[in-house]
Amino acid sequence: MTGSLPRARFLPWLLLLFFGSGCAALVYEIVWLQLLELIIGSSGVSLGVLLGAFMGGMCIGSLLLPRVVKYSSHPLKVYALLELAIGFFGILVLFGTPYVADLYASLPWHGVFSRALIAAACLLIPAALMGATLPAAARFVESTPAGVSWMGFFYGANIAGSVFGCLLAGFYLLRLYDMTTATCAAAALNVVVAIAALVLAGKTAAVPQAEMQLSDTETQSSYRSLVYLTIALSGLSALGAEVVWTRLLSLLLGGTVYSFSIILAVFLTGMGLGSGAGSIIARTCAAPRSALAFCQLALAGAIAWAAFIICRSLPYWPINPGIYTNDWGPWHLFQLDILRAAWMVLPASLLWGASFPLAIASIAVRGRDPGRMVAAIYASNTVGAILGSLGFSLIVIPRFGTRWAQQSLILVAAVSAVIAFVSCAAAPRSIGAGGRRLSGLAFARLSSGIVALLAVTILIETVSGIPWMMVAWGRFSATYMAQAEPKIISERDDPPRGGTPFQWHCTYVGEGMNVSVAVTKSSTGARFFHGAGKVQASSQPQDMRLQRMLGHLSALACRKPDQVKDVLVVACGAGVTAGSFVPYPSVRRIVVCDIEPLVPKVVAPMFSKENYGIADGIEKANPHSVQGKEVSVIYDDGRHYIRTLPEDSMFDVITSDPIDPWVKGSAALNTVEYYEMCKQHLKPGGVMTLWMPLYESNLASAKSMIATFFKVFPNGLIFSNDEHFEGYDAVLLGQKDPAPINLDSLQQLLDRQDYYAVRMSLMQVGFGSNEIWLPNPDQHIAISLFSTFAGRASAMGDWTQNAQINRDSNLRLQYLAGMYFNSYLSTKILQSILSHYRFPQDLFVGSPQSIEIQKDALRNRGRIER
Fold first, then answer.
1. C-alpha distances out from residue 292 to 298, 318, 405, 765, Å
2. Any alpha helices (H) in 313-396, and if so which ranges?
3. Domain 539-860 in CATH: superfamily?
4. Can you count the helices (H) and strands (E) in the chain?
5. 42, 203, 596, 825: least CB-packed within 10 angstroms?
6. Would you state the CATH architecture of domain 222-463?
7. Confidence of residue 309 (pLDDT cuts 50, 70, 90)
8. In the prediction, which pLDDT does 771 show?
């Protein structure tokens, strides 16, 4: 085995190896991020730390390998060892995270530094091994135009495998199995790739050391630094754009795990195709630096195209997701989601993909170590990607918004193009297909490039902000567009009445670090809080009823309701649930935990009338006082906050009102492990409640949510917020120490003068008023409230028997709910629950008269024993 020809004969087989390696890598990445978000939280800061650690590890690995591993080592044997090591660490991370979680919880502090420490400990080594695979295999080829093109093909094949791995994990392995199965499948793939690499290594020889003849002076040529800077800025714009576009597209497609998988898969598909095209160009192009420069310049136009499509085109496509799901099922809508994502993302992602092999070709010199060459380009690109990911997610979007972010992306692409053009002029010689001297031509191209850059300023001005309707209604933007006032009106202004054709008016739009929010008013005067592209809370009667139910059911179902002192509310929303505890004279401390600072600081004060001013004064002091109660607002992921609470931090009530279960990440606030953590922080006789939507759901996800809650609270209860026997949403209630609910005692409590405000809070949303089936409704408010009872765990064992339990290891709920989140089966779900209704003789106690009134009230609400 002496020349390069025998090695070249096996190069196509390496494409398959890189495909398998990329597939395994994406499965690992998805699993690791899910696992570690359960430990350090899923806030923007935590996600930024995780991505930084992962990409930082890949950067370190790519730089270290050519410096640590001798050039004489067989590249395929090194590649095989790396794959085996990745599989080993993949299994190690999976089974080691429970111990890491315990270690993290025991730390005295849980700030950014400790989160970064945990992320680095878990991800740096396996990510470094992944980053080292491309430089290792690059040594199997030569630093010639043909050899460089193969490096680009390797990169493209790796990305193609990543696309497959992304879809495999999101739509199959994690949807039907769990993280253990997904990890084992990825590790098995690593082993197969390693064995195949060793077989190929046995048929080829290592690259002779004599091929390395490059002088130090040429290695340090100045124009290469400009190429490194160009590809770094390309990586910055690529990951920055991915952050921005994922944020915007998830509003339009729905923030499910499937939407995120589709967006990532489309982005990677473009990168892979672009890398292949760039590799073909690099094989024959005499001026790869010029091609790289024009590629970056074209990126400015492609980014402007994406900004136009997401702001002025896609929201107006006449698509009603409910029709697609009900008539054809979710898979047809997924195809439409792929089309919309591709229409926006593909042009730019193709150019980013092409930039990588063109950058390698731009610095390629015969005799140079291809491992070091690829490592330098890969590391530069990754460093830029880290800065883009962190900068845009943590700084640019929350401070300046997505419009400014997309304008800055165009500018970054333009600057990258300028630097690439300068590199053309700086290089005295370009080693292309024929090694021709290109200095004069480079200057000509530099001049034309500068002229073209003048058009960039025009492109920047064409970028507009996203329509507020998209923030408010997301995937139903086109449905509501004709009913909405296009401009944003002042919060102080009342919606015009009479002559206006508009039914909706926006008073606030904000793009936070974690979620985009909006507040709107209807022509009737009702106010709505929107998050994740849908209404999350409102002042409408049905929503007000539910929000108050969460608070009052929690307080009054405690074993000693007149001694409730400490309350934790997970997810602020409009603040109505948290505010429901303000009228209770015994309550001394209310802690509100929300992942997005805009919600308590900006949104909740807009609902001050409905939430008893729970957030008033939060900008001046935190904690602050509201009617003698100490109100503290914690800006954190609710699960992370509860996990890191001191053991002696206890509450009488924990009420959890997270975002919809179909939203990616929400399932972590609905697992067995999460409920157990909450239960551990309940005082004796304490209560936990949970909001459960029946709309935008199906029977399987409803059963999963209820069965999971009942797993931890085996005496759990269901209370339904239905209207005219039609389902809407519900409250799950679990008592730490099950105790009967004495209707007479509760009514006596509500009749006390110091509980007058509590009584009025209930009557304002319809309890004890306008209920014709109750004799003297205002004297039976407790009965009215608890007549929303719909079921209990002990009577629903058969119904939940085959339900899929949502655990940390599978996060099953987000996959079940995300598949049918465009379904509207709330009444069917409620009827299915009520088919197991039995009057709980041992739960509701009181005088015979009160029990009979309670039974009549339940029957009038559609609760009939069968």
1. 10, 39, 23, 64
2. 321-328, 330-363, 370-391
3. Vaccinia Virus protein VP39 (3.40.50.150)
4. 30, 16
5. 203
6. Up-down Bundle (1.20)
7. very high
8. 72
DSSP characters over 468-530? HHHHHHGGGHHHHHTTEEEEEPPTTSPPP-SS---SEEEEEEEE-SS-EEEEEEETTS-EEEE
- List the Cα angle 572/654/628 in 5-degree steps: 70
CATH topology of domain 13-206: Growth Hormone; Chain: A; (1.20.1250)
DSSP line for 653-664: EEEE-PSPTTST
> What pLDDT score does 443 carry?
58
Token pair in block for residue 862: 């559609």
Q: What is the pLDDT of residue 116?
A: 94
Torsion of CA 117, 118, 119, 125, to 10 degrees: 90
| Topology agreement, domain 13-206 and domain 222-463 | yes
pLDDT digits (tens, 9 = 90+) for 476-522: 998 888 777 777 876 555 544 444 456 788 999 999 999 999 999 99
Query: What are the structure tokens assigned to 188, written together?
Result: 């098995």
Beta bridge partners of 730: 692, 720
pLDDT score for 618: 86
Distance CA 417, CA 285 (A): 18
Q: What are the b/e assignments for 665-687, b being 16+ CB within 10 Å?
A: bbbbbbbbbbbebbeebbbebbb
Environment class of 109 (CB within 10 Å of its CB; exposed 0-12, middle 13-18, buried 19+) = exposed
Q: 554: Cβ–Cβ under 8 A, 6 or more apart, which residues?
A: 567, 653, 655, 687, 688, 689, 733
**Distance between CA 687 and CA 700 in Å, rounded?**
26
Query: Side chain identity at 41, as an amino acid letter?
Result: G
What is the predicted pLDDT for the residue at 491?
57
Hey, is 632 helix, strand or coil?
strand
Q: What is the pLDDT of residue 364?
A: 80
Which tokens belong to 631?
């109100």
Mean pLDDT of the chain: 89
- Classified as helix, coil or strand, 117 is helix
Per-domain boundaries in the chain: 13-206, 222-463, 468-534, 539-860
Q: Residue 221 contacts by C-beta under 8 Å, 6 or more apart in sequence?
A: 427
Residue type at 648 in one-letter notation: D
Among the listed residues 96, 85, 95, 86, the one whose alpha carbon sits nearest the alpha carbon of residue 121: 96
- For 733, phi then psi, to 5°, come to -130, 130
Q: Measuring CA to CA, which residue among 680, 614, 671 is closest to residue 642?
A: 680
**Cβ neighbours, 10 Å, residue 800:** 19
SS3 sequence of 610-626: CCCCCCCCCCCCCCEEE
Residue in the structure block whose two tokens are 């492109």: 459
Within 8 A by CB and 6+ apart from 435, the residues are 429
Tell me: pLDDT of 416 over 60: yes
- Neighbour-count burial of 99, counting CB atoms closer than 10 A to its CB (0-12 exposed, 13-18 middle, 19+ buried): exposed
Asked if residues 36 and 118 have their Cβ atoms less than 8 Å apart, the reply is: yes
How far apart CA 557 and CA 686 sit, in angstroms, is: 8
The residue type found at 201 is: A
Give percent above pLDDT 70 in the chain.
90
Q: List, for residues 335-353, the tens digit of each pLDDT value.
A: 999 999 999 999 999 999 9
User: Using an 8 Å Cβ cutoff, are 748 and 560 in contact?
Assistant: no
Nearest CA to 718 out of 553, 542, 857, 571 is that of 553
Confidence of residue 409 (pLDDT cuts 50, 70, 90): very high
Cα–Cα distance between 581 and 550 in angstroms, integer? 10
